[in-house]
Hexosyltransferase
Amino acid sequence: MEKRLAIIWPVSVLVLLIVFYPSVSLGIRARPKDVRINGGDVRMDLQSLSRFAEAPEYRNGAECVRLRFSGPKPELDPNMVHVAMTLDLEYLRGSVAAVHSVLRHASCPENVFFHFIAAEFDTANPRVLSRLVRSTFPSLSFKVYIFREDTVINLISSSIRQALENPLNYARNYLGDILSADVRRVIYLDSDVVLVDDIHKLWNVTLTGSRVIGAPEYCHANFTNYFTDEFWSDPDYPSTFGSSTPCYFNTGVMVMDLGRWRAGSYRARIEQWMEVQKRTRIYELGSLPPFLLVFGGDVEPIDHRWNQHGLGGDNVKGSCRSLHPGPVSLLHWSGKGKPWVRLDEKRPCPLDYLWEPYDLFKAKVHNHGLNANLLKQSQGSLFGYSNYFL
Ligand SMILES: *[C@@H]1O[C@H](CO)[C@@H](O)[C@H](O)[C@H]1NC(C)=O
Ligand SMILES: *[C@@H]1O[C@H](CO)[C@@H](O)[C@H](O)[C@H]1NC(C)=O
């Protein structure tokens, strides 16, 4: 392995520098420091990077708005839909499937711009990840940013599941800083989602009043369990939620008004809670509770179809879950279990077969006949919205 890399690196790094330099840019500026974070068990080694199939080419329909910027910065075109996701080796297969699903169902796939946030110290260099995205989606409009992990590492406290501590989980908090100030709205997506509907519909939602974030809300959630006794017994902290009952929302799918975000210094507001957490343990989960503290109760309620979350099961056992009632536009495998892992281990949950058609990892190809049948069965019996998939 090391010998191979020694030969491949000098050549590929040079080529990548020349070819991809413009698409890689630095995000957060901070002191460089030699911090290495163990991102959990990385299930794919670097060789796997060449094992993604090229996605079919998705083209705009005749009704799509023509982009005006064909120059070096297509992300500045006012008609672009902006999507931000993280990109790391561990969840790469999920990210690739998510992008594939967005393109497949978008009415105007060429008008979608992807902002990928990669970790400075990922096993796969951000330039290698750029190359992978380019070879998988040859005509995709995207940019890879490097997230300086040390901006956040001192703010992270340990949580119940190790994966929740990955600094990239906190990248969504820095989108206002990382993305160009010209990008004023972005859809943030976790890497364990697939869309089965047109992303332009989600992009078009109105954030009423001065709301900064739109996301499906769950107002029957019992907040007691998201925060510790130290939080609830504090004289001041509980009043953060005001008199109204706060609603839960999942931060894996958010429409964010970055203009309002920057103007209101929301990054700093979230960091303040992370500072509190370092002194007094006020919650158990990773990046979500600070968002609840800052935005809980003041989120634009988007239709629940845009985040059917929890399909990965709970954070401890990863048991199978079913869908919430109602229509589905986005499936989200939040929780411990990931569909690619369960499929590979031949112990998938029924809904994992809905993720599989978006998987571009080549090792799966010989299975497709079988999977198509299982997909049909699971669609018929579980929901009856097969038109989304065919
Ligand atoms: C989104 O809004 C734009 C601009 O108003 C409109 O042209 C487009 O048809 C809308 N797309 C969808 C899918 O609603
Ligand atoms: C919320 O959960 C706590 C602890 O599990 C429980 O004591 C409380 O009664 C619950 N509240 C509601 C409204 O269900």
Notes: The chain has one domain: 65-358. The domain at 65-358 is CATH 3.90.550.10 (Spore Coat Polysaccharide Biosynthesis Protein SpsA; Chain A). Residues 1-44, 364-390 have pLDDT under 50 and may be disordered. The two ends are 41 Å apart (CA to CA).
